[in-house]
Amino acid sequence: MNFLRIGIFLFCVILSVPAVAAGNLAITEPSENETAFAEMRDFYVYGVFPEPLAHPGNIRVVLKDESGAVVRTVMSCVNESGVTPETSVDMSLVPSSWGDILAPDAVTEPGGVTNGSNKVLVTDTYYLALVQGGATREMGSYTDISGGTLAPITRDLTAGAYTLVVEGLDGDLAGERAEKEIVFGTTHASLGSFRPDANKQNVIGWAEEKAPPLRVYLNWFPGYFRLGEAGYEIPDRWQANNAVEVANDLAGTTIDTVAAAENDCLVYNIGNTSATLQVELAAILKNGLEDSGGMTFTHYDIGEPSMAWTDRATGTAASATGRPAVYPAGTRVVYTRAEITDGPVRENYFNTVINDTRKTVDTTPMQVTVVQGENLTFYGVTRPIATTLTGAGSACRYIPDDRIATYVYENETLGAFTFTGCLVREFDGGYLGYANYEFGHAFTETAAMPVGRWLLAVSAYNTTGAFVERTNGTIELEMTAPSPEIPPPTAGVAAVAAPASTRAPAEAPGFGVVLALAGLLVAAGVRRG
Fold it and tell me: Which of 395, 423, 404, 312 is nearest to 358 (CA)?
């Protein structure tokens, strides 16, 4: 009998011991490098299970402030299989989706889609939860039902330290728990296009070199998620959260204000429809921060992350790697290199793929020597200028109305040379990228230029033909005669248009503004000499 009693006692003790976590529950995002947020920002809590689970179970996400008070509770409502049923997610509310990915933003049970405390999606391979901070309160789900009744959330996620707790309530996740410390306040980001991958890596590298490191937005913004080829997009949510990270103009913040905004931006391949331009740079321009002390623009010292070519003089392969550099003080225009070739060239064009072009690359382009008849192209970058913006159809997305669009090179003897438009790059696979703040000015009539050392005065103008301050520059061009034993190239080689077989551009060129060229030429004439 005693043995039986001892056995029953031990069995009861075993039952009373909490289950040991199986290690399935983790917080994949926010990742370690992205635990600091702008005030009032929404964020996703995302966790990947090591292996698919047969019956995951319910998950609860809790956010506590520094005093330990619970300020957010978000909990799933799974079916008998332990996952969120498709019938509980109204994907008709998601503007853009592809594949079979469900959005936690559109969870409807329990309490309806306006209930902000049911926004946890559980699948057999991952969970994804939306925690709202106040940035998108106007979208209709800034409410909480965890207290028993559906009521508006009254406490925004303002500056301070918080503890994020994720708990498994039943099923295969029962008893499991994961925690992470996060902070809301000010952020300092490294911005730039993520296309091509080399540029993305340099945006990340620039951030990592700083002390403390800058933020790079690699985690999913709430309202945007992809898994393989499937995903969805809710522009009004992710764009609003992206914008406040750049320049926080929300009412009710405590320290994270427009005046406190700090950002670094690598100007390269910033296309017309890119989020870098229409969301991030737009937030900077909308708030007049383009010339503020907290704004740092950078560019590649050679104009490209890397480039390869065939040296025209030796016939051997040559290459160079670009390094990000801060724009010099006092100027909006930087010349990064000059390319000299005997072959035809295209105006405002650079092919990143072809590396067997025979040319001379001069990385000191403010003082260039050219032989009569050679083609000369100046490559460079500009900075964004103050501008109004036009709404692009969704929250916090805008089209800048103005930029530096026209350049005039002048010399009393050589005359005036006018260039308009932006640089077009051709990438692998035929993709054409329109780089709004970069240029490639091709001089193809050098055979008609007299021998001598000439100073070219450069001025830049906006889309309406008005002169832009801090764009004056002088380039020293030395023109020499061809060697007698080498026949000169054919004079007057015209800039060649893109061949008919070129693939259609991925986006429309330019800002869509027609230049007042007549007024521009008058302005250029006034500044001659």
Answer: 312
Give the pairing of strands 375-382 and 358-362.
unpaired
335 phi/psi in degrees, rounded to 5: -90, 125
Contact in structure between 221 and 205 (CB atoms under 8 Å): no
pLDDT digits (tens, 9 = 90+) for 394-450: 999 999 999 999 999 999 999 999 999 999 999 998 889 999 999 999 999 999 999
Report d(CA 523, CA 224) in Å as an integer: 47
User: Is the link from the previous residue into 484 a cis peptide, with omega within 30 of 0?
Assistant: no
Amino acid at 205: G
Q: Is residue 219 over pLDDT 80?
A: yes
Would the pLDDT of 494 be above 90? no
Q: What angle do CA 178, 181, 184 make, to 5 degrees?
A: 135
- Under 8 Å CB-to-CB from 438, ≥6 apart: which residues? 267, 268, 269, 303, 379, 380, 381, 382, 422, 423
Q: How far from each other are the two terminal CA atoms of the chain, in whole angstroms?
A: 113
Beta bridge partners of 335: 380
- Could you say which DSSP state residue 89 is in? B
Outline where DSSP puts E strands in 412-527: 415-420, 423-426, 432-435, 438-443, 452-462, 473-480
Check if the beta carbon of residue 87 is closer than 8 Å to that of residue 119: no
- In sign, the C-alpha dihedral spanning 493, 494, 499, 503 is positive
- Average pLDDT on 355-370 reads 94
Pairing verdict, β 262-266 and 188-192: parallel
The confidence score (pLDDT) of residue 512 equals 41
* Residue 497 DSSP class: P
Q: Is the dihedral of CA 121, 122, 128, 134 positive or negative?
A: positive
β-pairing, 177-185 with 230-233? unpaired
Calculate the CA 186 to chain-centre distance: 19
Which residue type sits at 124? D
> Dihedral sign, CA of 417, 423, 426, 427?
positive
Residue for token pair 């029962």: 174
Contact 178, 49 (CB under 8 A): no
Q: How crowded is residue 43: how many other Cβ atoms within 10 Å of its Cβ? A: 27
* Nearest residue to 268 via CA among 189, 361, 192, 217: 192
Enter the DSSP assignment of 198: H
Beta-carbon contacts of 255 under 8 Å, excluding residues fewer than 6 positions away, are 39, 159, 185, 186
- What value does the CA radius of gyration of the chain take, rounded to a whole number of Å? 29
pTM value is 0.87
Cα 26–chain centre separation: 28
Ordered DSSP codes for 29-87: BS-GGG-EEETT--EEEEEE-SS--SS---EEEEEE-TTS-EEEEEE----TTSS--GG
Q: Partners of 454 in the beta sheet?
A: 477
Residue 186 CA to residue 241 CA, distance in Å, equals 14
